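PROTOCOL LOG
Step 1. Enter all chains and additional molecules of the complex.
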Amino acid sequence: MMSRLVFVLSALALTACAEPRYTDPTPQIVNRSATANADCSIQFGTSRTCLSWTWEKLPTENETGSLIFKTYRPNTFDQTAVAQDLEGQVGLVLWMPSMGHGSTPARVQRLDTGTYRATNVHFVMPGDWEFRFQIKDGNNLTDEAVVSLSI
Amino acid sequence: MKRSSLFLFSSLFLLAGSHAWAAACCGGGVASPSLIAGDHRAQLGTSLSHTEILVHSVDTKGDWHRWRQRQQVQVLRLEGAQLLSDRSQAGFSLPVFHRIRDAENSSGLGDVSTSWGYEYLTDWDYHPWRPRGVGYLQVVLPTGRSKAESELGGLDSRGNGFWAVGAGTLLTKTWGRWDALASLDAHRSFGKSISTSQIQGTLKPGWGGNLGLGAGYNTKSLRWGGQITWTYEDPIGLDGPSSSSGSLERYATALASLSYMPNPEWSATLGYSDQTLFGSPLNTSLGRGLQLQLQRKWER
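Step 2. Run joint prediction.
Step 3. Record the structure below.
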């Protein structure tokens, strides 16, 4: 009797219908403003250079977006931001850590001291993503700052 | 009846196995082997599947995300198997993927798999309850690009992309007009080093497995069938300057099929698959699709 019950319960558990929990189909892209004060909440791992970023154009499902990011160090006198260039090839990778894949490569252009624009920013699917701001020497990654965001 | 059921039966497994064990998006999953499950000495089949992605992402919390973006996956597959002796067999499967995302598309070879099977449980005496059992070993070649290697957000990912070995079994039984099948496999994928413009390091996949249960009803030349396959894959970690631990992937694929066998040599199967109906999917994409398969068999 017990074995039959276990069998029936197991069969029911296996064939249980999926219970979809759909999220809002509108992309939840949180806008961030570049910080005037050097709060340094985002930092490169090795150089400890601070980073802030803000959307210039929000991406959609079908269109790429662009963002501006700034790199700086805190002024030793009053902790305000002092613009600072990154040394090496600067890049931005969009990575989906749970799925283990990225998106199409973004393009990064230096605009001024410590100010960069990343274009061709596109999320290929909704979910949890990372912005990986990277500095490379050839093919070698030398420094990185990671920002998590949900889409 | 028993004989025709067996022929149709083998068609079902081929169809279910070929298409059900792959996540809708971005490659993923390990292809199933081509197995002779009936009373014939060789088989050669081709199938075409078309899958529309309905849920673009199920995250690690189990929330389903849809995207206003059209994604489709088409797979053309050639597969065959040949008896090596009364009870042993060898097979292959060769898929070609065509993936469409809005205006972009990408095509190419997926993971090729080879297998060796052995019928460890025979049903020569038409036993009332003992099933026929075929066990198999499988080697998957990384001829498809893994999703981590893709520089197009998975558009050009056409498989698991790792060397993998697996072992499994297929149990089948017919009772008059009715039949049933159960399949179970476990596989181990092996890591590899990659270097793309986006990531560098060593990808570390792990174990995976599939459990399938199905049943069918046979008339003279038709078989109506249904099957559910549950799929699990270990997280794929990345070791390198920018590391990542990954997350496990799981989903269930339901398949309804209709097979037609005008004669013992030929059969055609039309299948409808849906990954949104059963299970508790995690970290995957879900699709719904149609498959058409043609198969030629050679009797013993």
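Step 4. Note key features.
The first helix of chain B runs from residue 2 to 20.
Chain B touches chain A through 55 residues (CB under 8 Å).
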